[in-house]
Amino acid sequence: MDFSKQPDFNNPRQVGMNWLITGGCGFIGTNLIKYLVHQGNHCIRIVDNLSVGTTDDLEKVCAFKYKKVEDLSNSFGEGEYLVEFIKGDLLDEQLSLKAAQGADVIIHLAANTGVAPSVKDPRFDCITNVIGTLNYLEASRHNQVKRFVLASSGGTVIGECKPPIHEEMVPHPVSPYGASKLAAEGYCSAYFGTFGIETVALRFSNVYGPGSSHKNSVVAKFIRRVLAGNSLEIYGDGTQSRDFIFIDDLVKAIYNAATVPNIGGEVFQIATNQETTVNELAKKLKSVFTALKIENIKIDYTDSKPGEIKRNFSDTSKAQEILNWHHEVELDDGLKQTVIWFLEEINKFRSSNLINNG
Question: Which of 66, 81, 136, 177 is catalytic?
Fold first, then answer.
């Protein structure tokens, strides 16, 4: 396979591409890598500081080789290993410049995520999400990387509004997290306009699915609490709404954003165009657990969280038209798959302990 060729964005699978993925050991990153490895013709380089994901998570989806910064070159992959892992931080400017050598596309997933952490430490949120993004945009510029895909946020960038959210709405973020993601989008737009880098910003809605054990989003939290024998804890009155997207659908959107031609400078809402309240989500999850013989689940209500928006769901017509993408997995089916995955992971852990202690 000749990776020295320029990627053909009309037929990326035929040519193969070199992918640099920041935050590749996280929930979204490992699922994306699993998808790419399954295709069998891409080389992947991962930069992750392991603050959330682990190399054990990565090991579950692919074989990989550890690399040091000084060993990086334009050549992606080594021998039988098509996946390389480098432990490093977004704020390491020299690492970003070295890691981007030879890349056809950068998928920028790494970030300080969530409203609550940004409220607790706005400065850290800003430095991580804004300067971290700038570092990899600069790495794209200096290494002639053709495409840069930013993981942004659907509701937090726009702020309080009457949904459905769409790309032409004027942003009014109400949390530091939303502000940092909006700033990152702004830099993407500037690097497209000034330097011609084909930046694409994807505004993810609430992502859930298998592999989300480390996530602090509401679906993963609810499932972990039930499996630990605790009640479901809902902030506020539970009428706040979100748009829940299954991980497999999100991964396909990222892939299309990296490969569809002539979309530089664009922003897309990646969601389901379906509004679900937290109360409705809790009810759906209780039904899934009841079907699996896990019953007597209680719900506790507590104070609302600052910076959280009330309603959030997105109009995805632009993604359908330009990215040729739409969601396929409905919430009921996705929740069932996710709960079963969590239960299987618990059983694997118990079996492993029995073997080790036997």
Answer: 177
